[in-house]
Specification:
Elements (H helix, E strand, L loop, with lengths): L7 H7 L26 H9 L13 H14 L3 E5 L2 H12 L5 E5 L4 H13 L3 E5 L5 H7 L4 E7 L11 H10 L4 E4 L4 H4 L9 E5 L13 E5 L13 H4 L9 H5 L3 H14 L5 H11 L2 H20 L4 E5 L9 H7 L7 E6 L2 H11 L4 E2 L9 E3 L11 H6 L6 E5 L5 H35 L1
Parallel strand pairs: 2-3, 2-4, 4-5, 5-6, 10-11
Antiparallel strand pairs: 1-7, 6-7, 8-9, 9-12, 11-12
Helix pairs in contact: 1-3, 3-12, 4-11, 15-17
The chain binds pyridoxal-5'-phosphate.
The site of pyridoxal-5'-phosphate has 16 residues, from helix 4 and helix 5.
Length: 449
């Protein structure tokens, strides 16, 4: 089934899979096995060297995983994909396939916190510098940062918690002028709300742990290749793809053409590091994908309704949701996210950390939890958890104040969610005024002394 022939709602149910040939199972079977038997000596040899189709070992070759990767690649408009054990593994593998010690990668500064620690810690320690630059810096500034050793530009469609939607076409232009691929983490948008390849991205990554699987039950990740980046035009930048192997084998570009990067990622990087997704998890991700558009429509509608309600609460000092007309990212969201601006709603309570504590402790329906994209609504005080390892100044620099709360808005009745928020926002207001009274009492004590 080809992308152009059917609508998204149809492809999320059918693309990349067929009826199982052996028993006619309608659903894609879970191939729970470590390996696959060879028919003969020659067959084993051929499967290993890639001249005979078929699987060899389940570290990179599981048919259940391959079916899910085909479906996600279809939904994103890519030529193929690779499933990984988590979103973090997808990011780590993709960059590992492109860089070597001494290399440099550019990234927009507003990113998922785990990605920033991966970049700073593990890549930093290997001698790979991943330089974070403000997305608001000028084109000139971005161009000046490109070095001969720069191997990629990394960004996210909707960075959280601030929802500072990225101008993907601008960064595709900057990357391509520099001769490097644009890699986009599209986790928060999902291919239903935005398809970065249509805006110039070369490689798309997801944490499928979030909205794609959608039920908070499994971790997973995927790397999708657009097949459009011309590696061959960059002969010295990506020798692992463009030069013959040490044993004289033709280059990946020569052997696999548009599939060069994806084949290298699967047959070298993923094989070497081994972050394999269990096929049971792949099966559950596939079940999630089949209702993606339906869930996202509801996620987005609930998010907008709650963001609008929060905006009108007296002790809520700001709301970051790009679906709000007042958001500085509204116009960009209209362009890149016409079906909705995602399902992360971040807001600031007056009264700082004491208000945040009262808010979190008053929630009854909403889960106090770190995660995104669950059918359940989740709330977290990121300053004491996800961003707890940063200094107060570092938190402020990324827009996280002591009163900042992040919601991952789920699929419950919006009326019930609002009731839970009402109670918690009222508790936060009471805690804030209590803290104010205490502060003024201690001020009096100071001036009396
Ligand atoms: C969760 C998340 C990741 C990491 O994914 P895991 O599956 O938790 O490893 C990466 N990027 C974004 C935007 C995420 O939300």
């Amino acid at each position: 089934m080809s992308s152009s022939e059917f609508d998204f709602d149809t492809r999320q149910i059918h693309a990349g899979t067929g009826v199982d040939a052996e028993f006619g199972s309608r659903l894609t079977p879970i191939y729970q096995t470590a390996g696959f038997v060879f028919d003969s000596f020659a067959d084993g040899q051929g499967r290993f060297d890639g001249t005979v189709p078929g699987q060899a070992y389940a570290r990179t070759d599981n048919p259940t995983n391959a079916a899910v990767a085909r479906r996600l690649a279809d939904l994103e408009g890519g030529i193929g994909g690779l499933l990984t054990a988590s979103g973090t593994a997808a990011i780590a593998l993709t960059l590992n396939a492109l860089v070597t010690a001494g290399d440099h990668v550019l990234a927009t500064a507003s990113l998922y916190e785990g990605t920033k620690t991966l970049f700073a810690n593990s890549f930093g320690r290997q001698g790979v510098e991943i330089e974070l630059v403000s997305a608001d810096a000028s084109d000139d500034e971005w161009r000046r940062r490109v070095r001969p050793t720069t191997k990629a530009l990394f960004t996210e469609t909707i960075p959280n918690p601030k929802n500072d939607v990225v101008d993907l076409e601008r960064f595709a232009g900057i990357a391509h002028a520099a001769g490097i691929p644009l890699i986009v983490d599209n986790t928060v948008a999902t291919p239903y709300l935005n398809r970065p390849i249509e805006h110039g991205a070369d490689i798309v990554i997801h944490s499928t742990s979030k909205w794609i699987s959608g039920h908070g039950a499994v971790l997973g990740g995927v790397v999708i290749d657009s097949g459009s980046f011309d590696w061959a035009s960059q002969e010295t930048r990506y020798p692992q793809l463009t030069l013959p192997s040490a044993r004289g084998r033709a280059s990946f570009v020569e052997r696999f053409g548009r599939f060069a990067f994806l084949t290298y990622l699967r047959s070298v990087t993923a094989l070497d590091y081994g972050p394999t997704l269990p096929p049971t998890s792949a099966f559950m991700i596939l079940q999630g994908i089949e209702t993606l558009s339906l869930r996202m429509d509801r996620h987005v509608a609930n998010s907008l309704a709650l963001a609008q309600w929060l905006e009108h609460q007296e002790n809520v000092t700001s709301v970051d949701y790009p679906g709000l007309v007042q958001s500085p990212y509204y116009a960009r969201a209209q362009k890149y996210l016409p079906k909705g601006a995602g399902a992360v709603v971040t807001f600031e309570l007056a009264g700082g950390v004491e208000a945040a504590r009262a808010f979190i402790d008053s929630l009854q329906l909403i889960s106090k939890m770190t995660h995104l994209g669950d059918v359940r609504t989740l709330a977290i005080h990121t300053g004491s958890t996800i961003h707890g390892h940063l200094t107060e100044e570092e938190r402020l620099a990324i827009g996280i104040t002591p009163g900042t709360i992040r919601l991952s808005v789920g699929l419950e009745s919006v009326r019930d969610l609002r009731h839970d928020l009402e109670r918690a926002v009222a508790a936060a207001a009471a805690a804030a005024s209590e803290a104010e009274v205490e502060a003024s009492l201690s001020d009096e004590a100071v001036s009396a002394a």
